[in-house]
UniProtKB/TrEMBL annotation:
Chloroplast listed as a keyword: no
TM region(s), chain numbering: 12-32, 77-95, 107-126, 141-168, 180-200, 206-224, 236-253, 265-284, 305-325
Domain of life per record: Bacteria
Protein name: Tetratricopeptide repeat protein
InterPro entries: TPR-like_helical_dom_sf (IPR011990)
Keywords: Membrane, Transmembrane, Transmembrane helix
Amino acid sequence: MKQRIDQIPAIWFIFSSLLSLFCLGIYVWGGIEGLAWKEVSELIPQSISLFPESNTSPQSSIFLVRQHYYVQSVAPVFWPMLLGALLAILGLTLLGQFVQSWAKVSWRQIVLGLLVWCGIIFWRNVQLSAMEWFSFLHSPWVIIACISAGWLCILSSSAIPSIILEISHSPDKTSSQKKFMGFMLFYLINLILSMGNLWGFWTSTLYVPAFIILEISFAIGMFRRLRLDEKPQQRLYAALFLLSHSILIPFLWNNNEVGIRALESWGFMTHIAMTLLFPVFLWSNFKEPIQQNLAIYKVIHKAHFIPIYLIQIGVFIVCVSWVFARQGTAWHQIVAAYYNEQGDVEHFVGDRMLEQMSYKNAMIHSKLNQKSNLSLARMSQAAGDIEKQAYYLQTSQIKNPKEKNFVALANIYGNENQWFESLFTLKKAHQLFPESPQISTQLSRVYEQLKQIDSAAYYVVMAKELASTSPITWANLLYFDVRHGSQIGKKDEIASWSTSSDHAVKSNLLALFWQNKHELPTQYPQEAFDVQLDVRDFALVYNSSLYFKGQSTSYPIQEWIKDPNWLQKFPEIAFLDAWQDYYHQQPLRALNKLDLLVQKENETKAQEYRLILQHWKQELLEVKAKVRLENVSQARSAIQSYPFSVGILQQALPLLHQANRHQEAYQASLAAVQWNEDLAAFYPLYIQEAYQQGEISYAEEAMTRLKKLDPALYQTHATAFSMAKEKAVNRQKF
């Protein structure tokens, strides 16, 4: 049992170190940003010859994919708050143990008091839901955690100087003093550089950021406390450590940067003050041991004249004065962070009014903080209030401009057809972020909208050079070559893109080779894939189906059409359905579908479909199929593939009758006549089938039509028609 108790300090140190490393990892990563890149693809129609082998090839549209970036607002994440709440519960438990030990209050009294207090609170708020309870308890938790973080900064401010004192100890006094003063001077200079960068006095990268120093000091402070025998001090430090990190984790993850800046400001204030006061503390208490070069780092927590806690109180007073000497900047920042955190909680509760009020209250204390502005921009975007969204985005980038903010603003202007405003915004962004491929991509799109094709081509190439491995830049360069015939793509590069698996690249590449009448590279992949309701997928399916015709993969287009989202997003799916039927052995069904589209579409599109319809009909008529049919299965298959072949019909119809499929035979002859009203060759077949079915009036109408089209052919079959009519009349008598 004693061995397990002895292991507790080591376990606590490992746990606290891992927690510090976790926070440092989030800090280095940067947390979730308020804005996130989202790729947007557009379908751009491009006219092309569908049947280049034909002299009268109809023109139709294939689709190019043009891509750019859309900036999506990102909502906060709940799990860091939940993790913070668990750490806070553990920290409050340890804090209660410290208070009980320090005040010597019995546990029975503490538990009884908590039960009474909790009972009253629960009785007065029994109607609250689980999330409302979380919101209700969240406010005091954040306040306690922020106070704990402030005190932890003070308590740990002596941790790094203490370690410096320990590692500076050498066999001789002179060497010890030189090392100590050198390390302390280096540490102080780093703190000053960090302070100057944080407050905007200068820009330098030759410093360790304040937050990293804070986490190191927290971990070292925990290590030093756990080495002591005073259990109450261990509990107090552990409680403050847990409570501080309970709020640091949601601050870091949800990018509540104003709270981190407040803690960094307070942290280096306390560390600078302690760095200046620590040598005075050592000399006042340990003058004689220092002169004798003794290892005073082992006893500094037991100062004789001036206890360390008095120095810490002095640090607190100095730093509070320093804060308010700067117009209370750190104070306003931490209050703004508190309201931002409240706004995040209200977001999950679902109370949009309180959420908005919280973020606006945060802006009262820190108008330019990113968290509040981006959160309000997100709410304005959801509400469709474009003007407010633009205002908050502009405000958010005054102090810390970011490329996503510029792109988001430019997109707003573009959506409102204010392309010059969009251009000016992106040009300013390009000056600040010249290495951003996203901004170059957006500039190309805006210049294209303004009909400045040369400038658009320049930025397409620039985006490709900045992101040479990005499929978006490849697809846009191919799009530009096809759309504007610019030939800005290098042949060897374009050939290497043939193996790309990106559907936008494959679709635009196919369009480029099709337009230039070049053969596709042998390595161009032509395989089936799981098609999603996505612009890039549709463009590839559409273009490849039109290009490869009967050699393309057969997709379940009829199933897609049943989903109204497909028809709404891609109306051309109906034409693709007819196209696939025609080139996958269902030509008659394709003709019927395309004929319906001709009746539904506007005149321009209807004329385009009429030309395709005529081409298909002519193609079916020109087919000279030499097939010997031996059974009904072959007959049905032949009629399906060659519905306008007289020879096929002459062989197939008798086989259908032998199998008692009289109606199918009649429908086959009827379809041939309906689609070819001016061709006399199909009428004899239809007239015989009409009489066979008892459709005497239809047969007589067809005979009249045949007399006008080809009297000689009519005379050839007149006797057969008379006999067929006589049989039909006799059948009707019974």
